[in-house]
Amino acid sequence: MTDLLRAENLTRHFKIGGSLDRGTLHAVDDVSFGVGEREIVALAGESGSGKSTVARLLARVYPPTAGTVTYFGDSAEGKPLPEYKSRRDALRYSSQVPMVFQDPFSSLNPVFRVSHGVLRALKLHRPELSAAERQAEAARVFDVVGLGAGMLDRYPHELSGGQRQRVGFAQALATRPRLILADEPVSMLDTSIRIGLLNLMAKLRDEEGVSILYITHDIASARYVADRLIVMYAGQIAEAGPIEDVLAAPRHPYTQLLLSAVPDPKAPPPSLEAMAAASGERGEPPKVIDPKPGCRFRPRCPVAVDACATVTPRLLPLGAGEVACHVAQTGAKVQAFS
Prior knowledge:
This protein is of the alpha/beta class. The protein has one domain (about 1-100, about 175-338): 3-Layer(aba) Sandwich (Rossmann fold). Helix content is about 30%, strand content about 20%. It has 11 helices and 12 strands. It has helices spanning about 50-60, 85-95, 115-125, 130-145, 160-175, 190-210, 220-225, 245-250, 255-260, 270-280, 325-330; strands at about 5-15, 25-35, 40-45, 65-70, 80, 100, 180-185, 210-215, 230-235, 235-240, 315-320, 320-325. A hairpin with a 7-residue loop joins strand 4 (about 65-70) and strand 5.
């Protein structure tokens, strides 16, 4: 599959602390991946894994500390993001790679009707449209996302959380995007509403030809909607590949840990003793402030070897995907968590 956007060795560090105890937070370290045409890629991991920072690097909210991001939507050869220097180029990129934010309650201005953001995006990114054409296009994208043109005159407080999030997708769709960066768009919604948003993302891929980078900590929703899965831990990619392959036979111990945490609706509820044992499971939070070489999952990994303490594992091809694990790369079958 041809890449629409490609990140190579993407890195973002933040300086933290005062003059006496200054340190460096390694939010994202040496991350490489691509998003293809008409593809939904799920970027999954626990809070603090760096997945939202990756989205903001792609959206040009932060400049990278190192590495490159190349966008192939304007030419087959691709164009690195630093080359989008002029206002015209910046607007073109932001229109083709918009972002949908996590919180549907703070992403809309409560003073204006929900049509305001869509019409403003159309005026900014599609200036060739007349006022009547902008109104017609706003009605069209509201229909596409399942709201209907009658919703255009409502205020944010008159909409549910799911409807507000659909407005966010409508604003993104109005600019004729090639790739939508969806930063945990369903995490603040009720479970009964989430399926509608996931179906909407699949619809945008299948009917509108839009690719989506879906940031999530929910493996179940990723499996429902995504074509490929990228698992991040402590700012690095642990495992990546076609989602069914990764979930059917996870190679990295962290991926296995994530899957073991997904509740089985058919299983009986755990006993208090089992819950207490799980809460006392070995491990500690990953160190991402001035980390030393080595595998960052090692303190929590029951199959760690000597090399894990001193050598940072590289993300290498293995089977249908890629994995960054010294033990898995030896060909040994890793079964750390079940």
